[in-house]
Design a protein that fits this description.
Elements lengths: L1 H10 L3 H39 L5 H23 L8 H8 L7 H17 L7 H19 L3 H20 L2 H13 L4 H22 L19 H22 L2 H12 L7 H14 L8 H10 L3 H20 L7 H21 L8 H17 L2 H12 L5 H17 L5 H13 L6 E7 L19 E7 L2 E4 L11 E7 L3 H9 L4
Antiparallel strand pairs: 1-4, 2-3, 2-4
Length: about 525
């Protein structure tokens, strides 16, 4: 009863209070992720030094091997202690917001931080953005616990922390908000987006003060304007990226089969599959050190180097195979940046081909790097709005938003026609059979009335017997709901449900149940 009163109070609280709590989450999540980034950069710099020194003195290879073995053992121990730190962490955050999982915020925070720093800084092809999102989310959960909030507000602060984590990781506050709304929370709720935006801006402000105002993927020159008569070529480009995204998803979702086979051959337990990944990365670090890590530096170097076709094909093959090996091992680390890197290489490859046949000029090849990132990420995540804004914020140039949107939309449509699922949702489905938890605590959820239930009366909805629509916000005014009340498109309704039934009730009301 006390929790329910808190949730009703939260629904009617002022916008200012939501903003203030979002700022608090943004401050904490921002500092956590900034320190996370600094730790990775510091240790990764040392690994680059060791690999360069190995060319002069082979003893450094032995040193690197020892570091890798120790890292695999330490990270394996951390993962064994809490399975929720595996991988990017985004599926776990999504599960928490759906009421399907309950993360131990402190255990995940410190284990994920240490495990991800060691894994990413070692040079494996993993990204910092997924861990940053999970670190921000559990920081938000820690704030909620400190404030003793209701379940409903706790989910809002978790979502805000996740948005802040992405904002601080990439200096992309709007993309942080959109990613949570479009890909993770799946609801454009006022209760969420106001505090999430405040948290994102705050975390981004902290990040900018530490890393500077230069965009994360700042391009050397202003992007060229495009000839409208050639837009059909970018539709073809989007189709290719959609097909490539579908292939990427199929492979990465089945890496567990590969590692199960590796585990049997070498008698490795799942927590120590990373030993194989570390051994595989050694020759890459020795011969192609520029390919190590998430790929941030590679993206920045391509516009000035303009690699030839054979080099690009080699980069594409290595980045594809070794990013799969890295992520599939179960190490704490993301695929966000590796996806963008693969997209940039694909874009440069197709741009080089277009230049060779005379379709574009040399100055336009840079644009294909950006289009490749947006289209490839849009297909794999099935979040085209996030892809558009994320890439434009990262490169700091909005002049080509139209063509970026065209490519992102095309690749998204191709992925949908092929029945590809959003990659993080697909990962969540693989995770859930082992992790579904029952929670009978009753909480309120907010659902925006869609066409699926519009004009129906409350009594016509077939909700589980333990769920109840309590109120509806119509024309900005909240009213108690009765059985004969009609629901109107765009209104918000508040439903009392057991925590573990949140996703089930959402699917019924949104018409997405199977």
């Amino acid at each position: 009863m006390e929790n329910h009163r808190k949730e009703v109070k939260f629904i009617h609280q002022s916008i200012l209070l939501s903003v203030l709590r979002g700022i608090l989450v943004g401050i904490i999540a921002g500092f956590v992720v900034v320190f996370f980034r600094l730790s990775i950069e510091f240790l990764f710099g040392w690994m680059e030094i060791f690999f360069h020194a190995a060319h002069e003195n082979s003893e450094y290879l032995l040193l690197i091997l020892v570091i890798y073995l120790l890292t695999a053992i330490v990270v394996g121990y951390l993962v064994k202690g809490d399975e929720d730190v595996k991988g990017s962490g985004i599926p776990q955050v999504e599960a928490e917001l759906k009421g399907l999982m309950h993360l131990n915020w402190w255990s995940v925070l410190w284990r994920k931080f240490i495990g991800s720093v060691l894994s990413i800084a070692s040079g494996l092809m993993l990204g910092r953005e997924g861990p940053s999102i999970q670190l921000g989310a559990v920081a938000g959960k820690g704030v909620a616990k400190w404030l003793k909030t209701s379940e409903m507000e706790k989910r809002s602060l978790i979502a805000s922390g996740a948005a802040a984590g992405l904002a601080a990781a990439f200096n992309a506050p709007i993309a942080g908000l959109l990613f949570i709304v479009e890909e993770v929370y799946h609801q454009f709720s006022r209760l969420v987006w106001v505090s999430a935006l405040a948290a994102s801006i705050t975390a981004n402000f902290i990040s900018l003060n530490i890393f500077g105002l230069t965009p994360v993927l700042d391009m050397p020159d202003r992007l060229p304007m495009l000839d409208l008569k050639r837009y059909w070529g970018y539709i073809l480009f989007g189709i290719v990226l959609g097909l490539a995204g579908f292939a990427y998803e199929k492979v990465i979702l089945n890496m567990s089969v590969f590692y199960g086979f590796i585990g049997k051959i070498f008698h490795l337990k799942p927590h120590y599959y990373s030993l194989f990944a570390f051994l595989c990365i050694l020759p890459i670090g020795y011969f192609w050190p520029e390919l190590l890590g998430g790929g941030h530096h590679l993206i920045l170097e391509m516009p000035s180097q303009l690699p030839v076709m054979t080099t690009l094909l080699l980069y594409l093959m290595i980045r594809f195979v070794w990013s799969m090996i890295s992520y599939g091992s179960g190490l704490p680390g993301g695929i966000f940046l590796p996806i963008l890197t693969l997209g940039s290489i694909l874009g440069m490859l197709l741009g080089r081909l277009a230049f060779d046949i005379g379709f574009i000029g040399q100055d336009e090849m840079i644009l294909f790097i950006i289009l490749g990132m947006a289209g490839f990420f849009s297909a794999i995540s099935k979040a085209p709005l996030t892809a558009m804004i994320l890439v434009t914020e990262m490169v700091g140039d909005l002049t080509q938003l139209m063509v970026i949107g065209l490519v992102a939309l095309t690749s998204y449509v191709v992925m949908d026609l092929l029945k590809g699922a959003p990659v993080y949702e697909a990962m969540l489905e693989k995770l859930l059979p082992e992790k579904v938890e029952s929670d009978s605590r009753v909480t309120l959820i907010e659902v925006v009335v869609s066409e699926h239930i519009a004009n129906k009366t409350v009594s016509e909805l077939e909700l589980p017997h333990n769920s109840l629509i309590t109120s509806q916000v119509h024309h900005g005014k909240s009213q108690v709901v009765k059985g004969n009340n009609h629901l109107h498109v765009g209104d918000s309704i508040y439903v009392a449900v057991p925590v573990s039934d949140i996703q089930k009730v959402r699917e019924i009301l949104e018409g997405t149940e199977l």
